[in-house]
Amino acid sequence: SRQCGLLSPQNYPLYIRSVPTENELKFHYTVHTSLDVVDEKISAMGKALVDQRELYLGLLYPTEDYKVYGYVTNSKVKFVMVVDSSNTALRDNEIRSMFRKLHNSYTDIMCNPFYNPGDRIHSRAFDNMVNSMMMQVC
């Protein structure tokens, strides 16, 4: 199972997708519990990230079943990705490129004049990109 979540700067979900969907509630909980780690990493890095365009946080925390990775944009939108721990073939640079791809798609949504920033994301193109990205993780 895998999950991808985008959270606003105020920590409410903009987009959450789980594959498969039967453990969706468990993964909502996982994404929200990882926010404390995201906030810790951001505050630990402090002023150093003011000049950076993007912030890949790396592995937030591992459990027996999955690994949780994080990424923050310059506008403080948080991306969280949950992957199976059994997937040992997935390298850090592959996770980083998946976050970049996610960030680029998110930027495309923000450029849509009909999207109101802060609203939940309802986009077929974004769904398709996230689904294809998650299938690659298998």
TrEMBL record:
This protein's GO CC annotations: endoplasmic reticulum; Golgi apparatus; perinuclear region of cytoplasm
UniProt key word Signal: no
Biological process, per Gene Ontology: endoplasmic reticulum to Golgi vesicle-mediated transport
Superkingdom, natural source: Eukaryota
Keyword tags: Cytoplasm, Endoplasmic reticulum, ER-Golgi transport, Golgi apparatus, Transport
Family: Belongs to the TRAPP small subunits family. Sedlin subfamily.
Localization in the cell: Cytoplasm, Perinuclear region; Endoplasmic reticulum; Golgi apparatus
The protein, known as: Trafficking protein particle complex subunit 2-like protein
Family annotation (Pfam families): Sedlin_N (PF04628)
InterPro entries xrefs: Longin-like_dom_sf, Sedlin, TRAPPC2L
Protein's gene: Trappc2l
Organism name: Sapayoa aenigma (broad-billed sapayoa)
Lineage of the species this protein comes from: Eukaryota, Metazoa, Chordata, Craniata, Vertebrata
